[in-house]
Design goal:
Largest sheet: 7 strands, mixed
Low-confidence stretches: none
Number of helices: 0
Helix content: under 10%
Distance between the termini: 37 Å
Oligomer: single chain
Mean pLDDT: 95
Shape: globular
Structural class: mainly beta
Length: 115
């Protein structure tokens, strides 16, 4: 399984961004996808998660109400739509895939929110 994250960038506070995580390779038996983020000097934290079928979603408290995770089945891509961005949302965002007993990580995409 390969994960390609994209969509990060520089945005002003209050703005929006959509992150994408394209999944390729053996997608059978994928259980769930999620987005994590890691700011400098801080531990990696979960932002949002979605079951592979899309029926179940989860949001971290820091983004709840401001973000939506969803999946495009045809494109095997998981998206994270973020709005009302704050400077504290600045971090490298990683997508993660759980497939059977294995965990895969994407390369990360930088999100910088200016005040």
């Amino acid at each position: 399984v390969q994960l390609q994250a994209s969509g990060g960038g520089l945005v002003q506070a209050g703005g929006s961004l959509r992150l994408s995580c394209a999944v390729s390779g053996r997608t059978s038996s994928i259980y769930a996808m999620s987005w994590f983020r890691q700011a400098p000097g801080k531990e990696r934290e979960i932002v949002a998660g979605i079951s592979w079928g899309g029926a179940t979603t989860y949001y971290g408290d820091s983004v709840k109400g401001r973000s939506t995770i969803f999946r495009d089945n045809a494109k095997n891509t998981v998206y994270l739509q973020m709005s009302s961005l704050k400077p504290e949302d600045t971090a490298v965002y990683y997508c993660k895939c759980v497939r059977g007993d294995y965990v895969y990580w994407g390369q990360g995409t930088q999100v910088t929110v200016s005040s």
